[in-house]
User: Which sequence fits this backbone?
C-alpha cells in the first residue's frame, strides 16, 4: 500500500512537471494565449457540444483565428472559419446518412483539402478512420480492405478503378470531384442539423509494408501520455502560431498526419500539394513565405539537386524550421542541407507503432553526425540484448521504447515484440555517452557474412559521402562462399563519372574487408514508397 502510494505520488510529480514544461512551451509557441471572453465562451461551448476528437483542433482554431488561412492548395485558400463550416456540414450530412460511432470509414486521397475535410468530418462523428496508401495496387489494397468492415470509402476520383479492381462495391464519396452527385462538396451543400458529441474514434494508420503486407495500427488520443513529448517538441522546435507550414509527405502517413495536427493546434496555414515535385515545392516555399517545411529525406535531396540556376533563383530565407522523418537521414545529406540552407534541420526518429522515439536538433547532428537525437520527456528508451538486459552506452543492441504513445496492437491481432516491458522497434543501435541515439539498421536487414554481423546502413552512410553518389542503397544477397554478401545500388550525382572500382577503393580504407560490397550496380533511381523508404525487396529482384 505504501509502495503504491509512493509510486502514485512520484507519477503525479512527474506528470505535474511535464504539464508545467508543456505549458511554457505551448505559451512560447502561441498556442496558449489570452482569448477574448466571447471567444472563450465559444470554445467552451464547442468543446462541450462536439466532444474530444481530431476535429476539436479545427474547432479551436476556427474560434480563435476565423479569418486566418487554414489550407492552401491547388484550388486556392480556405480560412479556418470556411474549413470549419464545410467540415460541420459534411459531418452532419454523413450522420444523416447513418455514419457514426461503431462504423469504419476508409480515406484514400492525396494531399489536398479533400483529405483534411474528409478526415475531420468523420472524426467529428466518432467513427474510425483507416488511412489508405495512395500507391497501393489492387491486390495489396484488397488485402488491406479485407481486414476492415467499411461503411464508406472517401477517395479521389483517380482511385475509383483500383477500388473496384480490389473488389470494394460499397458506398463511395469522392474527395476531389465537386460536380459528381456523391462528393464531399455536395455533402457540404446539404443542410442537416449538426451531430451531437460522440465518443472518440480511432485513427488506423497502416505500416509501410516494406517487409510484408501493411498492417493497421489503431491510435486513439491520450492527452496525458502526450504531455511530455508535446512539451519536448515545442521546446525544441522553433514553431510559432500563424507561421506557414508546408507538408510534403503524404497525410496518410503518421509523420505527415502528426504535423497536420501540429499546424491545426498552432492555427497555422498549411500548404499542400498533391505530389511532391521539387521545382513546384521550391516555388511554393518562396510564394507563401513558408517558415516550416515538413519533408522526408529524399525530398530534401531533390530540393538540393535542383539545377544550380533554378535553386539559387529561389530564396529560402523565410525557412526557419525543416523537420524530417519517415526514412533514414544520412549524415552526408544532413550536412549538405545545413551547409546550403543553414542550421534549421531537425530529424525525428520513431514509428507508427511507438510514436516519437527521439529528436535530433542541428547542434546534435553537427556534433555527432549520424545521430537521430535525444529521448523526449515521457519516453523511456533502452538498448537491450536478446534476453532483455539493458546495455551500457556504446554497446549495440535492440532499440526498445516504453511510453504512453505505444499502440495497443494491430487490427486483426498481433503486436510488436516486448522485451522486459519495452516495445522492440525492430531497429538495432546504441546510445552514446551524451544520451544521443544512433541506429545501425533494421534487424531484418542485418546479414551474416563469413560469420560477421553486417548492417547495410553503415555502408550506405559511407558511400553517400562520395561526391559522385546522389543516392544509394545496400542489401544482403546470397553467397555460396560467405553465406551472404553486400550488394550496392548507386545513383550517380549529375553527370559525375564514378566507377565500381572507384567506389570500392573509397570505402576499403574505412570499413572492414567483409563490409565492402562485392558488387556495385548503377541505376537511374531507387524504388521508394511514398514516404521515401527504399523498397529493398524490389532491389533484390533487380
Assistant:
Amino acid at each position: 500500500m505504501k509502495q503504491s502510494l509512493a509510486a502514485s505520488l512520484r507519477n503525479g510529480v512527474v506528470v505535474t512537471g511535464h504539464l508545467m514544461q508543456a505549458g511554457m512551451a505551448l505559451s512560447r509557441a502561441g498556442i496558449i494565449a489570452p482569448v477574448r471572453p466571447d471567444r472563450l465562451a465559444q470554445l467552451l461551448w464547442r468543446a462541450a457540444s462536439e466532444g474530444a476528437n481530431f476535429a476539436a483542433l479545427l474547432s479551436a482554431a476556427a474560434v480563435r483565428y476565423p479569418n486566418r488561412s487554414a489550407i492552401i492548395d491547388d484550388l486556392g485558400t480556405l480560412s479556418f472559419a470556411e474549413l470549419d463550416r464545410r467540415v460541420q456540414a459534411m459531418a452532419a450530412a454523413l450522420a444523416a446518412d447513418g455514419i457514426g460511432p461503431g462504423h469504419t470509414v476508409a480515406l484514400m486521397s492525396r494531399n489536398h483539402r479533400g483529405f483534411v475535410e474528409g478526415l475531420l468530418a468523420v472524426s467529428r462523428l466518432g467513427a474510425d478512420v483507416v488511412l489508405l496508401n495512395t500507391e497501393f495496387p489492387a491486390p495489396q489494397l484488397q488485402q488491406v480492405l479485407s481486414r476492415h468492415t467499411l461503411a464508406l470509402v472517401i477517395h479521389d476520383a483517380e482511385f475509383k478503378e483500383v477500388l473496384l479492381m480490389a473488389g470494394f462495391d460499397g458506398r463511395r464519396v469522392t474527395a476531389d470531384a465537386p460536380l459528381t452527385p456523391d462528393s464531399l462538396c455536395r455533402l457540404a451543400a446539404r443542410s442537416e442539423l449538426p451531430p451531437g458529441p460522440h465518443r472518440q474514434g480511432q485513427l488506423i494508420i497502416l505500416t509501410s509494408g516494406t517487409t510484408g503486407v501493411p498492417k493497421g495500427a489503431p491510435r486513439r488520443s491520450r492527452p496525458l501520455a502526450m504531455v511530455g513529448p508535446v512539451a519536448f517538441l515545442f521546446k525544441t522546435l522553433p514553431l510559432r502560431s500563424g507561421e506557414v507550414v508546408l507538408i510534403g509527405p503524404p497525410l496518410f502517413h503518421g509523420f505527415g498526419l502528426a504535423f497536420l495536427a501540429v499546424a491545426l493546434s498552432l492555427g497555422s496555414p498549411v500548404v499542400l500539394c498533391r505530389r511532391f515535385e521539387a521545382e513546384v515545392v521550391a516555388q511554393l516555399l518562396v510564394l507563401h513565405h513558408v517558415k516550416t517545411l515538413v519533408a522526408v529525406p529524399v525530398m530534401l535531396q531533390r530540393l538540393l539537386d535542383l539545377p544550380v540556376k533554378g535553386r539559387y533563383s529561389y530564396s529560402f530565407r523565410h525557412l526557419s524550421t525543416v523537420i524530417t522523418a519517415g526514412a533514414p537521414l544520412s549524415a552526408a545529406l544532413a550536412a549538405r542541407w545545413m551547409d546550403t540552407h543553414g542550421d534549421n534541420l531537425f530529424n525525428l526518429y520513431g514509428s507508427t507503432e511507438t510514436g516519437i522515439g527521439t529528436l535530433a536538433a542541428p547542434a546534435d547532428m553537427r556534433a555527432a553526425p549520424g545521430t537521430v537525437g535525444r529521448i523526449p520527456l515521457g519516453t523511456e528508451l533502452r538498448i537491450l540484448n536478446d534476453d532483455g538486459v539493458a546495455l551500457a552506452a556504446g554497446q549495440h543492441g535492440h532499440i526498445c521504447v516504453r511510453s504512453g504513445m505505444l499502440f495497443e496492437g494491430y487490427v486483426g491481432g498481433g503486436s510488436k515484440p516486448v522485451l522486459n516491458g519495452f516495445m522492440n522497434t525492430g531497429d538495432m543501435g546504441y546510445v552514446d555517452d551524451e544520451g544521443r541515439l544512433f541506429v545501425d539498421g533494421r534487424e531484418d536487414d542485418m546479414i551474416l557474412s563469413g560469420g560477421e554481423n553486417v548492417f547495410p546502413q553503415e555502408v550506405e552512410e559511407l558511400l553517400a559521402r562520395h561526391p559522385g553518389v546522389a543516392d544509394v542503397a545496400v542489401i544482403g544477397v546470397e553467397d555460396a562462399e560467405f553465406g551472404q554478401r553486400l550488394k550496392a545500388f548507386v545513383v550517380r550525382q549529375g553527370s559525375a563519372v564514378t566507377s565500381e572500382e572507384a567506389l570500392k577503393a573509397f570505402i576499403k580504407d574505412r570499413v572492414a574487408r567483409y563490409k565492402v560490397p562485392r558488387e556495385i550496380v548503377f541505376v537511374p533511381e531507387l524504388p521508394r514508397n511514398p514516404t521515401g523508404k527504399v523498397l529493398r525487396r524490389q532491389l533484390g529482384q533487380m
